[in-house]
Amino acid sequence: MLQGKGFRVALVTDGRMSGASGKVPAAIHVSPEAASGGPLALLRDGDLVRLDAPAGKLEALVDAAEWSQRRPATLADAQRAGNGHGVGRELFAGMRRNALAAEEGACTWL
Description:
The chain is an alpha+beta fold.
């Protein structure tokens, strides 16, 4: 819908998705993943991100000095527990708990 209104849209996630992007340029299975303290955990609301799909490049447009001072975002235990419920999320709790990083095959049964 946003593209239809003239907005430039891309999807960046460390989630495992299937068919979610359609015509939207997407960087899916980004690793190292945010949950492992990777660069996605350093992004904050309002940060600009450049996705150059043809070049295979994903870049946070944040001042280097500020970026180097950031620490990965974390959830308090109560937030983590609350985030796992509602809208069917409890159905996938085991997968979230056991999923490996993308470069390890993203397996959930090991």
